[in-house]
Amino acid sequence: MIWKYCDFREEKKEVPLHAPKGTWLATYGKSGLYRLVALEKSYEPIGGNGCPKWLETAWNAFWDGKPFEVNLCTEKKPSPSTAAVWKVVLGIPFGTTRTYGEVALLAGIPDGARAVGSIMRSNPWALFLPCHRVVGKNGKLCGYGGKAGVGLKAWLIEYEKEKKEGRL
User: Would you name the residues annotated as active-site residues?
Assistant: First the structure.
């Protein structure tokens, strides 16, 4: 999976994606996925007439713990630190976690745990850029967007662990 800088003028569509835990809204274009967020309430998508096959395949693969490929599109060129953090987080395997400090070290940002938290706070591709797999020291759960917050993060981590261990 890669992220790439895309033209903001590209036509975008939205589609709701149903999951074992709630519904998510995907914003996509011909270049790939622009945004993926958990829905907190009912929402009518813009311009979507069904899910494109590449996104449906990736969505199902994610929930099955299988590898998949999706272009993660950004309209704003990320800083080198942000790009480094994205690369590290994309590499965290399904069903495992890393601490903010570990991600910072691997991204070349010594003592940058808080910076990683700030970068993850504005993650446009929740789940696909698996910021839920980034935890505090000693596995402490902290920071996850939306009303569901840390509860959703805990559920996702447990779901992946059970799926990986074959209990789901």
Answer: 131
